[in-house]
Amino acid sequence: MSSQIPTRIEAGVVVGFAFTLTVDGEIIDQAESSEPFLYLHGHSNVIPGLEKELAGMKPNESKSFVVQPEDGYGEVDPDSILHLSRTEFPDDIPLEPGLELEMRDEDHEIIYATIVSTTKTMVKLDFNHPLAGKELHFEVTILDLQAASPEELDHGHVHHHAEHNG
Fold first, then answer.
1. How many structural domains is the chain composed of?
2. Which of 10, 25, 48, 108 has the CA that lies 20 to 30 A from 91?
C-alpha cells in the first residue's frame, strides 16, 4: 500500500474526532469517540475557525479553544430578518416563536429560518444561522487520521469511512 498513515492534520487528511460544542454555557452538539465526526481537512468541510485550530494536531491529542463569530457562522445580518405575510404559510403549521422552518429560496435550494415573532397578519423570520454571532467553545480529541482516497480529494469530502450518523 503506497499511502502512508498521516501523523498530523493537514490538507488531504481524513480526520475523525470527538468533540463537544458549548454555546452560552449550553452543550449544543457533540460527537462521542464511539461515533467520531469525520471530515476532509483543507476542503472547507467545517467552519474556518475549527479547521484552523485542528491543523497540525496529532492522534490522541486533545485541545479546548474558542472560535469567534467571524471564523464560525458569521455575525448576525439584520438583512436576513424578514417579515412575511401569514398567508404565505400553510394553515397546518403552528406559527410559534422559536419554530425552525425548512423553506426553499428562488433557486429551489433549501434554506432554514426561525420564527422570531408573529402577529395576526405577519410572521417575522430570521434566516441567519442559529449560531451566527455566537462564540463557539470547542473541546476536541483527535481519534483517527487517514489518507484521503483520490476520489475524496477529487470530490472534496469524505466518502466511505466509518459511518457517522449526525
1. 2
2. 108
Cell 455566537 belongs to: 134
Is residue 56 domain-resident? yes
Strands 136-147 and 26-31, how do they pair?
Answer: unpaired
Q: At a CB cut-off of 8 Å and minimum separation 6, what does 102 contact?
A: 110, 111, 112
Q: Tell me the per-residue pLDDT of 136-162, one tens digit each, with 9 for 90 and over.
A: 999 999 999 999 999 999 999 998 664
> Is residue 7 included in any domain, yes or no?
no
> Cα–chain-centroid distance for residue 111?
14
Q: Is 85 exposed, middle or buried (0-12, 13-18, 19+ CB in 10 A)?
A: exposed
DSSP characters over 6-55: PSS--TTEEEEEEEEEEETTEEEEEE-TTS-EEEETTTT-S-HHHHHHHT
Return left, alpha or beta for 88; rule: phi > 0 is left, psi -120 to 50 is alpha, else beta.
Answer: alpha
Contact 114, 129 (CB under 8 A): no
The verdict on 109 and 86 lying in the same domain is yes
With respect to residue 2, please indicate whether it lies within any of the assigned structural domains. no
Q: Residue 145: give the domain boundaries.
A: 13-73+132-155
pTM given for the model:
0.81
**pLDDT tens-digit series, residues 13-48:** 999 999 999 999 999 999 999 999 999 999 999 999
